[in-house]
Amino acid sequence: MSENTFTQGSEVKVTTGEKVFFKGIDGIPFEGKHSDNPLSFKYYDENRLLDGKTLKQHLRFATAYWHTFCGTGGDPFGVPTKDYPWLVASDPIQQAKDKMDAAFEFITKMGMPYYCFHDFDLIQEAGSIAESEKRLAVISDYAQQKQQASGVKLLWGTANLFSHPRYMNGAATNPDLQVVAYAGAQVKNALDITLKLGGENYVFWGGREGYMSLLNTNMKKELDHLARFLHLAKDYARKQGFTGTFLIEPKPMEPTKHQYDFDAAIVIGFLREYSLMDDFKLNLEVNHATLAQHSFQHELEVAAGANLLGSIDANRGDYQNGWDTDQFPVNVYELVEALLVILEAGGLQGGGVNFDAKTRRNSTDLTDIFYAHIGGMDAFARALLIAHQILDKSQYKALRKERYSSFDSAEGQKFEAGNMVLEDLKNLAVRQGEPKMLSGQQELYENIINQYL
Ligand code: XUL
Ligand code: CO
Questions:
Q1: pTM
Q2: Ligand 1, atom 8, residue with closest C-alpha
Q3: Within the chain, which residues score under 70 in pLDDT?
Q4: Is 26 considered catalytic here?
Q5: Is the CB of 285 under 6 A from ligand 1?
Q6: pLDDT tens for residues 322-374?
Q7: What pLDDT, on a 0 to 100 scale, did the predictor assign at position 321?
Q8: What is the pLDDT of residue 12?
């Protein structure tokens, strides 16, 4: 591998291959909010300290390989619009290497510490398992060199168990054992390359794990199979020395009509039922939350409450339509709501902020990918700083505490400790009489966020 490196920011070294894909962009500096340079950070100063950690360490940003380097703008109504120069080689290995050169050039110019991939984002799947394994070996060797040269790390790997036609009836939940076996082979190989590349987590997203019709579906059997499959994957990876976290990414639908990993609460119930709580946590995605008719903040609260807040896929939907548009996050108010939950939970457990987001079909310049990530990183950095200030300086925490203060009383403590019977509650009610009306003060809370924006 012939490459050129120079230092960008604290740890990541800009790493280009022989071809330079993003000519004219040397790296994205932090210039502050008064800068007119669109190719600079206005808020994300990676070295800025907050509670003893840099913003880079707090946020642990990752690029999603599939959207940023493989997504070319095709949709059900039209052909691809983006002519990415790293996708032109007809030889799959050459194309994969060009794509990886472009990926590491981009990631390091952005100063991002992490990336995430599906197995066949890295290189096209071949016609047999053996041939695919060979391709994965070549490209993961190349990735290993690139990671070493640049300092970029792998936040998580995963297997694409939803694109190939063989998975049309599901992968781990397929009614045909031969398809389940194929999915097992693919996950084994994806785990192997994730381990080889020092991946810190491993994700399962079940886009085809669900049903299109209950008429042809034995739901209980499929759920049992899914759990069995996850146990096999977990046992294999642990045996190989993987110490990271397995993450399940909930999504209620799309592409399947109903997906078993519907939302955080349902996944937590599943993990509990099938004894997977010790090894698995959640990877929550904004637009999946909204598809499940929740806010992102809601999904984060549910996961944090179960101590399973692992990682997040950052993006946003569109309020004028109902599908997974995977746009880059820009809404600071909503991000502050999310960051309040994440900070109060003590941060993400082992994960980071992965931009599972794509530029629009009509954003066809290479520079657009930079603008998109700069916008997302700045929005997150700004929201983090604001949420931190709210927790530190405003009445927010005290108000929330005060709202539950009746449980600090002797009677309240007795109730919470499980030392009351129903008659005790009745006697307390009779003794104290009709409760006073206590305002929820929602508008006051909303104003606090606005004040600190
Ligand atoms: C699909 C989605 C996936 C997962 C990884 O909606 O979010 O890209 O993040 O398979
Ligand atoms: Co995702």
A1: 0.96
A2: 356
A3: 1-10
A4: no
A5: yes
A6: 888 999 999 999 999 999 999 999 999 999 999 999 999 999 999 999 999 99
A7: 86
A8: 85
Architecture of domain 46-393: Alpha-Beta Barrel (3.20)
CB-based contacts of 126, cutoff 8 Å, min separation 6: 92, 132, 134, 135
The Cα-based distances of 123 to 137, 179, 181 in angstroms read 10, 21, 21
Catalytic residue among 58, 67, 98, 118: 118
Ligand 1 geometric centre to CA of 203 (Å)? 9
Q: Which helix (H) or strand (E) holds 342?
A: helix 332-344
Which atom of ligand 1 lies nearest, measured to the CA of 67? 8
Query: Which ligand has the nearest atom to the CA of 65?
Result: 1
**Would you list the domain boundaries of the chain?**
46-393, 406-452
- Cα distance between residue 116 and residue 100, in whole Å: 12
Is the CB of 326 inside a 6 Å radius of any atom of ligand 1? no
Whole-number pLDDT of residue 11: 74
- Say if residues 116 and 63 touch (Cβ distance below 8 Å): yes
| Structure token digits, residue 43 | 């808020």
